[in-house]
Design a protein that fits this description.
By secondary structure, the chain is α/β, with parallel strands linked by helices. The protein is built from 10 helices and 12 strands. Strands 2-1-3-4-5-11 form a 6-stranded parallel beta sheet, sandwiched between helices. The protein has a 6-stranded mixed beta sheet with strand order 7-6-8-9-10-12, with helices on both faces.
């Protein structure tokens, strides 16, 4: 009889252990988009962190950074699925606030990465110090044009918190440190290389005295470099870009780009998941985790 009870007890323990092994945490990660090289590298960091931390990963994002409605749908589906934690890079600062509030109220911790949201009701914000990135861009461009002259700002898209911070850093740094540099033209690339090309072409045509240009994200940066190449203005209109990709490296080598402000997308993705796991483990997580950008001068 005792042996039978012991066998039953062992069976219960084995079943409990099996159930515990089955309860692998599931982390949902929603990037701004999935098609750009930046987000491909973010995904690599996210997947490495999920592997290191032994969690199940659900990675899902809209193809385009301008598909706001699709991102909201994906976040809502993650909440309905009851993921254990959620990491989101917001395409627009306000549109996800209500969904994030619902997730937090439901006990699903939310880490926002790369691009912020208009709420403090999150676990942490993990991102490049984008204001400093814009300031670095301003200093690099001012140096390239000799500290004086007209420049253009090729912005990313309205409502994108990360790039708006870069643009603010660029504008405020020029105003404070380089009063002889005037921002004479501003347009948006709308997260599209072709639209970035068209916007850069328009500004170059409308402002023949432009001495330089700053593009605040990869799509606009590629478009601006192509516009300068097309017009034979390499070395005449100085360009400082943000982010890195093969077309930008080629532009750097070709003489159409003077300097690139770069960040580490792999690290951003990794640390977003790491912060989320730390919260789930009961650890204290900083409200903001800033990662430093740097300037790479072109040869």
């Amino acid at each position: 009889m005792a042996a039978g009870r012991l066998a039953s007890f062992v069976a219960v323990l084995a079943l409990a252990a099996s159930c515990n092994r089955a309860k692998t945490r599931t982390i949902g990660v929603v990037p701004k988009a999935t098609s750009h090289l930046f987000w491909v590298n973010v995904e690599k960091g996210v997947r490495q962190a999920a592997l290191d931390k032994k969690v199940e990963l659900v990675w899902n994002g809209a193809p385009s950074e301008t598909d706001y409605a699709r991102q909201v749908q994906i976040v809502e589906s993650m909440i309905a699925r009851r993921v254990d934690g959620l990491a989101v890079a917001a395409t627009e600062a306000k549109i996800l606030v209500s969904a994030i509030d619902r997730a937090m109220a439901a006990g699903i911790p939310v880490v926002v990465f790369d691009s912020g949201v208009a709420t403090e009701n999150i676990v942490s914000f993990v991102a490049t110090n984008n204001y400093e990135g814009g300031a670095l861009g301003a200093r690099a461009l001012a140096k390239a044009i000799g500290g004086a002259g007209e420049v253009a700002l090729l912005a990313h898209q309205p409502g994108s918190n990360s790039t708006m911070e870069r643009e603010r850093g660029f504008e405020e740094t020029l105003a404070k440190e380089f009063p002889k540099v005037e921002i004479a033209a501003r347009q948006f690339s709308m997260s599209d290389r072709a639209k970035g090309l068209a916007a850069a072409e328009n500004m170059l045509a409308a402002r023949p005295k432009l001495a330089g240009m700053f593009a605040s994200a990869e799509p606009g940066s590629v478009g601006a470099a192509k516009a300068i190449q097309n017009r034979g203005l390499g070395g005449k209109v100085h360009l400082v870009t943000f982010d890195s990709s093969e077309p930008l490296v080629e532009g750097c080598r070709g003489g159409w780009i003077d300097a690139m402000v770069v960040q580490d997308p792999h690290r951003i993705g990794y640390q977003a998941v790491e912060a989320l796991i730390a919260k789930l483990d009961g650890a204290s997580v900083p409200k903001r985790i800033d990662l430093a950008p740097q300037v790479n001068a072109c040869p």
